[in-house]
Amino acid sequence: MSDAYASFRDFYPFYLSQHANRTCRRLHFAGTTLIVIVFVAACVTQQWLWLLAIPFCGYGFAWIGHFGFEHNRPATFTYPFYSLAGDWVMWWQTLTGRIKF
Q1: What is the pTM of this model?
Q2: Does the pLDDT of residue 1 top 60, yes or no?
Q3: SS3 sequence, 21-33?
Q4: What does the pLDDT average to over 9-31?
Q5: Cα 15 to Cα 88: distance, rounded to the nearest angstrom
Q6: Segment 77-82 long-range contacts (CB within 8 Å, at least 24 positions apart)
Q7: Measured distance CA(89)–CA(97) in Å, rounded
Q8: Which among 100, 91, 92, 93 has a CA at the least distance from the CA of 61?
Q9: Which is deepest, 49, 91, 92, 93, by most CB within 10 Å?
Q10: Average pLDDT score over residue span 56-81
Q11: Tell me, what DSSP letter sits at residue 61?
């Protein structure tokens, strides 16, 4: 692993390598989908306290995937912004069928 990545394009292959386990990817997908649902529900109902659940939805599912199935340290601990972007790109690519669910 490189100490620093010059761009997200350089980082993303590493990010994907940290999500080789299918169950881990599925948990990421579930958590990110739940984030979307909670965000939309909070906006529609204007119950803004629901937004406090977002980090628990995202990180909770992801960390279970990493510690329980992937057996690695989440990249977000070292690369928080690239990892956040990577999660959304991986979610979109899974949703559109580019990454196998």
Answers
A1: 0.89
A2: no
A3: CHHHHHHHHHHHH
A4: 97
A5: 12
A6: 79/5, 79/11, 79/15, 82/5, 82/8, 82/11, 82/12, 82/15
A7: 12
A8: 91
A9: 91
A10: 94
A11: H
